[in-house]
Design goal:
This protein is an alpha+beta fold and 439 residues long. It is built from 17 helices and 14 strands. This is Carbohydrate ABC transporter substrate-binding protein (CUT1 family).
Amino acid sequence: MPVVRPPLDRLGADPGRRRLLSALLGVPLLASGGLAGCSDDAASSSQDGPVELSVFWWGSAKRAELTEKALRLYSDRNPRVTFRVTWQGADGYYDRLATQAGGGNVPDLIQIDDAMLTEYTQRQVILDLTDHHVDLRGLPEGLIRYGTVDGRTMAVAAGQTHAAVVFNRDLLRDLHMPEPRAGMTWPDYLSWAAQVTEASDGRVAGTMDGSGDYRALWLWLRSQGGEFYRGNQLGFGADELIAWFELWQRARRSRATPSAALVEQADSGEPARQLVVNGVTAASFAWSHQLPELQRLTESELGIVGVPGPAGAQWARASMYWAAFRGTRHPEAVADVINFLTTNGEVGAVLGHERGLNASVSVRRYAEGSITDPAQRRAAVFGASIADQLGPAPAPPPRGHAKVRTLLVTAAERIRVKRDGTREATARFLSQAIAALTV
């Protein structure tokens, strides 16, 4: 259920943008704390009274605890700004936002991901931040690009993440099996998974079936010089998709993956349903920033490694973004809060890598020593290990991406239960996906 919090007392802003907030809020200039990479450009505003900003995000109770603590740090510096926060699990989040958008009452500051960035831009739900003093200087170039639509800054990365294989380290030790390694080819990875299944006498399968996982498909395509999208169209055709589906058909025949029924339970991507934490598989596909949450769901030690293929197929991907409602009455205040959440060192130490690696490279370095959670540290080490190998970032996915993801899952499921052959499922997917992208 959604959790609604009353306004948090004494919420304020990062002093890095002193003149802006002095003009905006009419509060005294305060001494700087932590890192502040924000602009000192002045802004004019007639607002000189209290400002209440509504904030909405999805995530766990732990994310809520840390985010509210970060917002309190903001208010400690600017007492006239207060926040009304609402958060809930990922399921139903966008349904709730759609209802709010229909009524014109979207919260001032919202968390979104790349599935909706382009669509919310084109539907004019979110604010163009290009001229609203957002500070992107500390972000990797690829991460900046991944928040732009048609050359305009529409959102700022709340964190950086990478597609990864999360594996049960304790289980592999018990089975005397090696851990998956970075840079494995897809055939090598699936051969390893089949050996794990055999070593366990079939008690667990080596890997989650990734045939319907768009992340895995996207990186597989990029490893061969392809792309998932070209502009607002699919970047691949029938031959590529058939080859992908047949790769996983061979994996099933070698018993590298679990039964179709078990895979279907995990296809939603919800951490609690991931088969690696349920003891069904030795490995699952996930985002690297999800490792701490996955670790909380199992007593076994989890490890992390890149998805098979070259690290250069990956890019600096935003785990999620902070975006402003186009109809907010306080656009500069919202932009300043975004700056505070993404460029302030003290905030970086509070949030850790809960939403992924801190968006700002300088904040990552500043906060590194304060992160004590072992799973967060493992995720950070993984991110650092491929940082210099990342490829160029593509444009954010086009409008209709969320539907395309669902269609891919459906096509993969129909093949797994033998309702469709690979060619029939591919033809149906391409027809429906092309239609979804032209709406």
